[in-house]
Amino acid sequence: MHRLLLIILLCSCSATAVAQDTQTTDVDTLYQELFGEEERAALSSSTFTDDITLAARILDACRALEEQQALRIHMCERAFTLAQRRDEGLTVAVAAMQLLSQVSLDHAASARSRILDVYMQAFRRSRGRAKQEHANKLIRYATQYGDLHFARGEHQVAVSMYQRGAGVARSIRSDKRKSLVRRTDIATNMLTSQTRIQRLAAQLATAENPRLINTQLATACLVDAADFDAAAWYAQSADDAELARMVHLVNQRPRDLEPTDLLSAGTWLMTMANRAADYPKSLLLRRAVQMFTAYLQNDQQDEVQRLLADTRRATCRKMIKQLDVPRIRRQLTH
How confident is residue 43, by pLDDT bands cut at 50, 70 and 90? Predict the structure, then answer.
């Protein structure tokens, strides 16, 4: 406890000095002053309990810090090293990497990958019920973390995490394998689309006809990635006036559009969806459903047009169901 109080005292009484310390002094020197003696004692102890207890205390101290990022990163790393060597420290090791992913976004992907690593190690060296539990947790984290990175456009990281989860799911014959394989395929396709869009964007600076490239980019962002904001950005400078007009419409909130525009936008989205791969196709169709639903909420529309909108909305919903695209979660649920 005295180490925790020391850290709090350093932060509250000498914020500037500590900030300079952690910038100009090797953070390990400061760490050794705070925890070095206890760490050496724990490592020389015959029981692993001492290692876990110290690792947990280091994390408590890390949480008490609000700044000094370099020191906090170092503390998470040392806590992980202490705790991850045996299954008894698994919970603390995972907590260390979860905290690291919060402390530094630059370390988030590697921290989450290491969480999968420790569960993989625990899975491989365990038997019976424990083996099943480790496998289930690895599968859950691989899905959650893959989804998080997918939602952020980090498709390569997502593919790696989905594949690791799918491998374990296959080995225990889990029904989660199908979903993870589907996610892997979707993330792989999105990675290919992302690369293609980046190559197109790189041509803008030297293109003889940048308006043509902008048209291609607007179409690609919409059809290949269902990125409405990016499509609207490129469409502003496109050489296709009708494309620019429609991209602008579908990027608006349905409640802000006129009834005729809602019907046109929904129908156009259905047409564009026919050119898309499964994941962007599902997003385009969902946006079309929103447009048709907003149109139908106005009771003043022509009866034939209402029937048309209702029919097309039903068609979109049926197509979405047939696509069977898994829900990609944008937030973690620990």
Answer: confident
Predicted pLDDT of residue 20: 46
The residue with tokens 């290692």 is: 51
Q: Which residue has the tokens 């491989």?
A: 124
The neighbour count for residue 212, using CB atoms within 10 Å, is 14
What integer pLDDT is reported at residue 3 of this predicted model? 52
DSSP state letter for 302: -
Angular region, 3: left φ>0, alpha ψ -120 to 50, beta rest? alpha
* Pick from 186, 158, 180: nearest CA to 168: 180
Q: Is the pLDDT of residue 288 over 90?
A: yes
What's the pTM?
0.81
Q: What is the model's pLDDT at position 331?
A: 57
Tokens of 124: 């491989």
Q: Are 148 and 162 a contacting pair, CB within 8 Å?
A: no
Q: Which domains does the chain show, CATH number per domain? A: 1-103 (no CATH), 122-206 (1.20.58), 210-323 (no CATH)
